[in-house]
Design brief:
alpha/beta, Rossmann fold, N-(1-d-carboxylethyl)-l-norvaline Dehydrogenase, domain 2, 2 domains, binds 3-hydroxybutanoyl-coenzyme A, 3-OHacyl-CoA_DH_NAD-bd
Length: 289
């Protein structure tokens, strides 16, 4: 296929707005979409905050920020916006039914060369591909939070993904300054499968009183040089997101992924992590994003 110039990002939440931002900073035209004007506006405001932070730190020129902002259009109609897209990246909640509906609608409108990317953390890319009219053009493009900072792009090949689509995904990774790894479609891929088990065990340790949240995190930060301990990282990712991934991996891979009762309770209590100001830790209002 010809080079990717226009990207549609579906979902303006934690991951979607970050993905739109890095695409725009790399000179791509982007349409950021979500279900409501309010959700889109929230995503755009998070992009503004991140770009401002980069300008303040001297990592981005003011003109580059303006160029990036000018490259971002918004919409509440993902299928309509995809009518001239080279690449669509879905970043909606981890709900298979939602993703299938979305890809069905998008693939009915998108041109025959469009690549369909999904930012799913753990669900089956092969199953998602079944909702489109061409499984060869469907691929996992798994980003990491915070997207402007994290170097990795995990490219996930579904059963029907073509070599041409994989090559285009690799080229896209280079274009946006990410280092790609290519993995086979399997539950949790390479990253979530390993990352989630550490977070899950940390929650079990907290639950059974092995140590405080601060000390469990310090164990990994200071003893293993992780940039962030597993509980603080769960707060960053979102406890609801982690629970959804664990439920899926528990069904697919077995007992070691059974979600801890404490995680379920915290999600029921609305303690979803940094995005709401409260998870394993508390976050002041200005630190939420
Ligand atoms: N936008 C732009 N820049 C940002 C940013 C953002 N949203 N967030 C952080 N930064 C920049 C900061 O400005 C800072 O820049 P500097 O080096 O020039 O000063 C740099 O990143 C480091 O940030 P801080 O100084 O604020 O704080 P830290 O040094 O503690 O780093 C962190 C923060 C980058 C989040 C680091 O703690 C980290 O790497 N944590 C682990 C993150 C991780 O593991 N993410 C993966 C989660 S799993 C996932 O996303 C998968 C999904 O499917 C669930």
């Amino acid at each position: 296929m010809s080079e990717i110039a226009k990207v549609v990002v579906v979902g303006a939440g934690t991951m979607g707005h970050g993905i739109a931002q890095v695409c725009a900073q790399s000179g791509l035209r982007v349409t950021l979409t979500d279900v409501s004007e309010g959700a889109v506006a929230k995503g755009v405001s998070a992009i503004d905050k991140s770009l401002e932070r980069m300008v303040q730190k001297g990592k981005l020129a003011a003109e580059a920020r303006e160029r990036a902002r000018a490259a971002i259009a918004t919409s509440t109609d993902p299928a309509g916006a995809s009518a001239d897209a080279d690449l669509v990246i879905e970043a909606v909640p981890e709900n298979m039914a939602l993703k299938l509906d979305l890809f069905r609608a998008i693939s009915a409108r998108a041109p025959s060369h469009t690549i369909f990317g999904t930012n799913t953390s753990s669900l089956s890319v092969t199953e998602i591909a079944g909702a489109t009219n061409d499984a060869a053009r469907v691929i996992g493009l798994h980003f990491f939070n915070p997207v402007p900072v994290m170097e990795l792009l995990e490219i996930v090949r579904g059963l029907g993904t073509s070599d041409a689509t994989t090559d285009a995904a690799r080229a896209f990774a280079s274009r946006i300054g990410k280092r790609p790894i290519v993995v086979k479609d399997s539950p949790g891929f390479a990253t979530s499968r390993l990352g989630v088990i550490l977070g899950c065990e940390a929650i079990r340790m907290l639950e059974t009183g092995v140590a405080s949240a601060e000390d469990i995190d310090a164990a990994m930060e200071l003893g293993y040089r992780h940039p962030m301990g597993p509980l603080r990282l769960t707060d960053l990712v979102g406890l609801d997101v982690r629970l959804a991934i664990l439920e899926h991996l528990h069904r697919e891979l077995g007992e070691q992924f059974r979600p801890p009762a404490l995680l379920r309770q915290m999600v029921r209590a609305g303690r979803l992590g940094k995005k709401v100001g409260r998870g394993f830790y508390e976050y002041p209002a200005d630190e939420k994003k």
